[in-house]
Amino acid sequence: MIKKIGILTGGGDCCGLNQTIRGAVYRAKDFNYQLFGIHDGWKGLLEGSISPLNLIDVEELVDKAGTFLGSSRTNPYKIEDGVKKVLKTIKNYSLDAIIAVGGEDTLGVANKLFKEENLNLVGAPKTMDNDLSGTDYTFGFDSSVTRAVEAMRALEDTGRSHHRVMVLEVMGRHAGWVALFTGIACGADWILIPEYKTDIDEMCKQLQRVYARKKYALVITSEGVDLGTSEKKEELDQFGHMILRERGVGSQLNKLICEKTGLEVRHAVIGHMQRGGIPTVFDRILGLRSGVTAVNLIHEEKYGYMAGLQGNEVIGVPLEEAVSKLKVVDRKWWELAQVFFK
Ligand code: F6P
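ok -> structure tokens follow
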């Protein structure tokens, strides 16, 4: 019988995490489960850093970004005796089930622990990158795009005033969802995403056409675009991911466009400002629903599942489906974006 549940948030923070924790705490009350907050992702299970969660801890989290439990990119499989330590903490605290809230890395570890250690694990998918399979959208994405749209809107004022090409670099790792949605929503004149190679000459011709018409142009690029002109050495994190912002694609583009068109160009990198701020209503509600559904999954003993959004429903989706392949921008979306490159 379930009595105690631990909840952790791992990977990059994003909007919707606090709401997920809140949803889980509130729903747990309905079944008389006691929820425990595990601090800083998997690190909290390695180090035994855990504390009980009650309504008082979460009731004011309905509109706060980030995760009050803390997060890290710690991978127990990359640490000596990591899995043993995780199991020991779970036993010490008599945790009957775990909710892992995270992206492909955190849920990848959850899926492995579920399959190999037979742990009672469920997941809730988050990421501003929106690159998880098995769910139509992840919370965090909508707020990040909203932040990037605000940034692009501000850059447009300068572009228009100084007759410049303004380039905005956004995060998103190897999926171009954030750049694509921001670009479409802002009326960007060119969008670069990692999934589809940009013909630089074609882009420059288009920018010149646009410039002749309105005397400024807007370009948005995803950090994961590889122009082949970076000289930086690429570092890897514990999950083997490159730190893409080091590539500086925005600055490379600035140089390229300037050289090829002779236009005045400026670039800006939005970076981590995109992960915080006030969560959008969409992310708040999706977060709350994900937390509630994660507890429901435990109640139904549907371990190895996560709370995925499919259509309008948040339902149990196998973790395996979520982590087996990255959800990248498909041709249909890319073709829609191109309708507006005129
Ligand atoms: O995965 C979310 C994300 O924001 C990516 O878009 C970005 O590449 C990465 O995290 C940045 O990670 P960190 O916060 O560790 O610098």
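The mean pLDDT is 96.
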